[in-house]
Write a structure and sequence with these properties.
Mean pLDDT of chain A: 93
Strand content of chain A: under 5%
Oligomer: heterodimer
Number of strands of chain B: 3
Structural class of chain B: mainly alpha
Number of strands of chain A: 0
Shape of chain A: elongated
Order of helices and strands of chain B: EEHHEHH
Low-confidence stretches of chain B: none
Radius of gyration of chain B: 13 Å
Number of domains of chain B: 1
Number of helices of chain B: 4
Mean pLDDT of chain B: 89
Largest sheet of chain B: 3 strands, mixed
Number of domains of chain A: 1
Strand content of chain B: 5-15%
Structural class of chain A: mainly alpha
Strand order of the largest sheet of chain B: 2-1-3
Order of helices and strands of chain A: HHHHHHHHHHH
């Protein structure tokens, strides 16, 4: 139980270190403040975005766990663990290599056309419902990187009792939202966007290194814990 | 100042527009307000930046939108460094 929750929390922390939602929240609040929106309006927009991200993260994890539950039941084949670990390791290296572009600012790996589209949509967002939708789509846009921690968490979740599965989904969602919650809180309490953005730019290489390393460590740990140890026990029992 | 300066947008991928002080003023004002600058101060800063940019624009028949943005950013850096930072990095946040 402790081991399962440790994996879920660690995977969620890796998820929290990805930055697309934070970038979109920064842009959204920048446009809202710049267009003289009242503070209440700003909070509605940023909170709408925040809840959009929360709902999509929860849905994505639940859906992945449901698919695995139907596919594997309670007995997950070793090959599924091995493929998931390979995905974690591959994405860990990809994060090290590609997550931030080699230019000033906090430009992400996104194709420039897509980044422009998301930026324009963020700029045009005026309603809370739109902000909620933007939050939903920001999670989908980053699916290529967050899929690995979500898959591992889903595999771990389906081995738990139903009540603990719900607790695991909630824990993953809350922890994965930590970075967004901090930025949302800072914006809501009147901190300057320029300081938040400067901090992000100054620490982007560290965040990139931490996210990539986290994926590698998780992949290695889960491989030893689920694949190597199971194989060793199986041979030991023969 | 020359009243009909053409602004070449996005390296020619979008139609050229005439220079409009109002658009430049609005973008600089938004950057100042984004860093929680008081409205009066933001208006004054935007006015100073527009003046400085227009001095540079004088006698130029055509400029690119990137050059216009760079010049405005340089000027905003002098009058309001924090707003200047956001103005300069606006397109590289994501």
């Amino acid at each position: 139980m402790f081991n399962s929750f440790a994996i879920i929390i660690f995977a969620a922390l890796i998820h929290a270190s990805f930055q697309l939602s934070v970038s979109m929240l920064t842009l959204l609040s920048g446009h809202a403040i710049g267009s003289k929106a009242a503070h209440g309006r700003l909070l509605k927009l940023t909170n709408g975005f925040f809840f959009g991200v929360a709902v999509m993260t929860m849905l994505l994890l639940s859906f992945t766990a449901l698919v695995f539950q139907h596919a594997f039941g309670a007995h997950i084949p070793l090959v599924a663990w091995a493929i998931s670990c390979g995905l974690l390791l591959g994405l860990g290296v990809a994060v090290w290599a590609f997550y931030y572009r080699r230019e000033e600012g906090t430009s992400l790996w996104l194709p420039r056309g897509m980044a422009r589209y998301l930026s324009d949509r963020t700029k045009a967002t005026k309603q809370t419902a739109e902000a909620f939708g933007l939050g939903l789509s920001s999670v989908i846009a980053e699916l290529i990187f967050i899929i690995a921690p979500i898959i591992i968490s889903a595999l771990v979740l389906i081995k738990l009792e139903p009540l603990w599965q719900l607790a695991g989904i909630l824990a993953y969602t809350l922890v994965s939202l930590l970075s967004l919650a901090i930025v949302n809180g800072l914006i809501g309490s009147g901190h300057k966007l320029s300081r938040i953005q400067k901090w992000r730019e100054q620490n982007k290489r560290f965040l990139q290194f931490a996210a990539g390393s986290g994926l590698l460590i998780l992949g290695f740990y889960v491989y030893v814990d689920q694949v190597v140890s199971t194989t060793a026990f199986a041979y030991g029992g023969l | 100042m020359n009243s009909s300066i053409d602004v070449v947008k996005a390296e020619g991928r979008r139609p050229t527009e005439s220079y409009e002080r109002g658009k430049l003023h609005a973008s600089v004002l938004a950057a100042c307000l984004s860093v929680r600058s008081p409205e009066g101060e933001a208006e004054m800063t935007a006015h100073k930046v527009c003046e400085r940019v227009e001095q540079w624009l004088a006698a130029k028949p055509e400029v690119t939108s990137n050059d216009l943005r760079r010049k405005a950013s340089e000027s905003l850096d002098i009058h309001h460094p924090e707003a200047g930072y956001l103005y300069k990095h606006h397109r590289v946040v994501m």
